[in-house]
Design brief:
Blueprint lengths: L1 H25 L9 E7 L1 H10 L3 H5 L3 E4 L9 E2 L3 E7 L3 E2 L6 E2 L3 E2 L5 E2 L1 H10 L1 H6 L5
Helix pairs in contact: 1-2
Length: 137
């Protein structure tokens, strides 16, 4: 029951975040949600909810970067009763593996243009392919 309540509340929060992303899309700040750096200005209830979700909230919201901010939202933020959002274009390049925009994205020695997070996964799980390289055939 508690898990259902938490995820139901999270889905309400996600709907609010999607509205903020849609406004940014309409204003041509971003094209798709993975281009977004989303800053959340939560009240204490939402802050507790985000901690209770115990997941990668950025991934659940399908954004490249997520920041949980303290204090009052700036003017121009998309505001709701319990939370406000600002949306900016994420910094960095698109990772060929996860498609997130990340400042650590770079071409690796094995010819893959991926972020540090994906590089650690690839290097740990696909050592033979890393040794041979991923050149196009």
């Amino acid at each position: 029951e508690e898990i259902l309540d938490t995820w139901s509340a999270f889905m309400d929060f996600r709907g609010q975040a999607q509205k903020a992303l849609e406004e940014a899309r309409n204003a041509k700040v971003i094209g798709k949600s993975l281009e977004a750096h989303l800053t959340v200005y939560p009240n204490e209830v939402v802050k507790t909810l985000l901690g209770a979700v115990d997941s990668n909230v950025a991934q659940l919201l399908i954004v490249s970067e997520l920041n949980i901010a303290e204090g009052t939202a700036p003017e121009g933020a998309v505001s709701f009763e319990d939370v406000a959002f600002t949306v900016e274009r994420a910094a960095g390049e698109v990772c060929d593996r996860c498609r997130r925009i990340d400042p650590t994205t770079a071409e690796r020695s094995y010819h893959a243009v991926i972020c540090d997070h994906c590089a650690s996964i690839v290097e740990e799980n696909f050592a033979d392919a890393v040794a041979e390289g991923f050149e196009a055939k």
